[in-house]
Structure formats: C-alpha cells, structure tokens
Amino acid sequence: MITKNVAIQVLNAALATGGDFAEIFLEETYSNNIEVDSGKTQPPSSSISYGAGIRILNKLQSVYGYTNDLSLKGLVKLATQLSASFSGEQAVFVEKIEKVKLKNKHKIKTALSSVDTKEKIALLKKGDATMREFDARIVRTIAVLIMNNRHIEIFNSEGKHFQDAQERVRFVLQAIAMQPGAFETGFTGPGAHSGFDFVEGLDVEKEAREVADLAIRKLSAKDCPSGVMPVVIGNGFGGVIFHEACGHPLEASAVSKGLSPFAGKIGQKVAHESVTAIDDGTIPNAWGSNNIDDEGVATQRNVLIKDGILQNYLIDRFNGRRMKQESTGAGRRQSYKFETTSRMSNTYIAAGPHNPEDVIASVKLGLYAKKLGGGSVNPTTGDFNFAADEAYIIRDGKICELVKGATLIGNGADIITKIDMVANDLERAQGMCGAASGSIPVDVGQPTLRVSAITVGGQGGKLQ
User: Fold this and answer.
1) Which terminus of the chain has fewer CB atoms gathered within 10 Å of its CB, N or C?
2) Residue 252: alpha-carbon gap to chain centroid
C-alpha cells in the first residue's frame, strides 16, 4: 500500500520528539453481505474500508491517530501531529526496513470472489425455504452470507515489514416463530477463516431444520424455575461464559492496571483442577485465527489455565510494557480506526475425561443449558448475567422438559472453581467480540461441563 521509503520517512517523523517505538498499520477491507429475508433476496450490501493508523509509544505513554490519506504528505502530517504529544529529542532512527516472511496457516481452496453470486443466493434460498416450510408458525426467516476480505500491512521502527491477507465467511440462519401469546427465535451462525469451500461443506438444510425446530419448541416451553442449583452447560457456544467472565479479565489491558481478579496470580490455583483453558490463534482456518496479530507478532497457542493453575495472560506490546512481559500475539483491532490492545482469538476450555451423557447423569435435579445467548459482564469484577437460548430441566440424570427465560448469574472467578466435571466433546462456536479496540471475530468453546452450583434466574418458581 505504501513503499518502504515512504514508511521510513513517516516513522522518523513520528519519532522526532523522543518516542521510542512507532508503527504504521495499513488496511484495506472489502465486505459483502447477501441476505434472503422470508424468500425475498435483498440488494447486496458492500463496503470498502481503507486507511492507516499511526501509533507512537514512549515508555508507558501511547498516542494514536488514523487517516484515509495514504500519500507521503498525508502520513507525515499525521505522524507530526501525533509526535507533538512528546517533547524530547529523537533517539530512535529508522534506516532500513526488511519484510518478514510469514507462513500461511489458513489455506483457501475456493476464494469467495471466484463464486458467482447466483450460486451464493441459491444456498441462502435453500436454507431460507427449509425454515419457512418447517411449520406454519414460522412467520419470518433470515439467511445471510457474510463475507470479508482483509489485507493488512505493518511497518514499525524495529525495521520490520509485515503483510497478511485474511478471508472470512459466515453463514447465518434465523427463524422467528409466533403463536398467540408467544414469540420465539432460533439462530445459528457458523463461520471460518476460509473461502466458499467452508460454506459448501455445511449441511444447510440440516442447520435450517434445527433452527426452525428450536424456535417452534420454545413456543410451548414453560418458564424456568429459579434458585441455586447444579447446571450442566452444553458444548460449543456454552464457552461464551468463560470468554466473557474469565477471558476478558485475563487480557493484559485489565491485568496490567490491576483491574482484573486474576492480576498477580500466575502460578496460583484459580480454578477447579478439571479446568484447562487455552487461547489459540493458530488453529488452521478457525474463525478467530490469524497468521499474525495486528502488531505483526506471530499468533500463539497460549495456555491460560492448566489443571486449575493460572499460567499466563493475553498480552499485547503496550500493556506488556507495564507488565514487563513480551507480547503473546494477542494484539488485535477491528480496523485501522482503532488502536490495538490485548484481545482473545479462539478461547476454550479443553476436553476432559468424561462422556457428556455421564455428566448429565450425575445431576439429580438441575438445569441443562444446552445453548447460551446474550448477556452482560463487568470485566473488572467478572460478575455476569447470561441468558440460556435453549435449556432443559434435568431430573434423576435425564434431560426432561424444555424451559424458557433461564438466566445464569454469577462471577467468573467463582464459577471456574465450581466446574467439577468436564466431558470429552469439545466444540467451538463463532461470534463477534466487542471491546476497546472494536468488534473482532472470535471462537468460543468448551466441552459439556458441570457447574456444581450457580444461581439460575427464571419466572417459574422454585425447582422441584
């Protein structure tokens, strides 16, 4: 996007007043969404994001700005404006820049751009029609293909130059069911750091039937009872609780400021010994994976908790300075408009020794939260509140009636001490995570697991 000579001039302009590190982050992203709404194909929605962000670090100070003007004049102007935040003399000079070769771990078999729009629409219509035809009470259906091509380029004052191309696709299905006095939805949204080959590998009709079936069954579900009880949380998207309530407090942006309940606890027991938690940005073609993070650091497999013992944090360059630790490849951002910070990639609780059926059978009376929905978390305290999108009562070790309105309430640092049984059916699910550096693609995941006691909110009275 710019030449090495231009990058050298811009970096030196940024460092002119005493900054000890400077970085140029350039990005060009093409996004395209195709939607079929209740049988009707909507006009495609496309956008292009193009620009550059410049960051200057001076010990524990950081300044950041961005621009769409990628000319030498425009970039030097921004760098000079940012450098005015400091008042020292230039001590770091950039004389040459060399490109760093990257190994691409995310092979694309069929590029999204190589597939005709009609073929993409045909798959969407198949999913949409399957949901609409499932039951007359399905009143609206939505099928969306979300496609994203992102090209990034990074130059820094260490004389390094990085380039990477990232292609992602997500296939979203939603069914809305209605009957007198009831309104419910079903949803799925599998995605990958991949091309159209990922979509071709999906059983679209099966996914659509499951979404419609859940929406219909929820219409007749009774209100969930409330109280403190054992809860079995299903695999896949059940991992959103760990992501939100524990993953964010393990990010250096919170830890470095002492705002995390896990700060200063490396080597200490913070979870039940059955819990091993990992953030792995290297998984081939996973939704949250990359070859490098948005600071040019190679992504890593970071074991955060092993057998209940805290091992590591998710660290970016700047917050690593506060902690006097190296980056773990966790610096991420939505786009050039955001300054990078520590973020998750593919975060999950590792598989355990038990069969999922045995985990469920171990509960005499409790809740099976098969799928979780939205929620809220206080990242400083870890207090959370999550709705269960699909939940059942467990009686005498068997899954019984479907219930609605179930909410899991607790604290992340507390709940991971109560995960006392972990199954061997690890799955990951895809989502978007919003934080200080914008919205980014992430995987959450876990096997089926048992929480010995957690507060369940509901309108159905006491569980009995």
Assistant:
1) C
2) 16
Burial class of residue 106, CB neighbours in 10 A (0-12, 13-18, 19+): buried
Tell me the C-alpha distance between 251 and 38, whole Å: 41
The per-residue pLDDT for 43 is 94
Contacts of 207 (CB under 8 A, 6+ apart): 127, 171, 173, 188, 190
Cα–Cα distances in Å, from 232 out to 119, 408, 423, 451? Answer: 41, 11, 10, 6
Report how far residue 233's alpha carbon sits from residue 369's, in angstroms, rounded to the nearest whole number. 5
Element (H, E) at 301: strand 301-306
Instruction: Answer whether residue 382 shows pLDDT above 90.
Output: no
Other beta carbons within 10 Å of 180: 5
Amino acid at 94: V
Listed in order, strand segments (DSSP E) in 59-121 are 61-67, 98-99
Q: What is the pLDDT of residues 289-345, one digit of tens each?
A: 999 999 999 999 999 999 999 999 999 999 999 999 999 999 999 999 999 999 999
pLDDT, one tens digit per residue, over 203-233 is 999 999 999 999 999 999 999 999 999 999 9
User: Going along 157-207, which residue ranges are E strands?
Assistant: 160-179, 182-188, 191-192
Dihedral angle of Cα 358, 362, 366, 368, to the nearest 10 degrees: -10
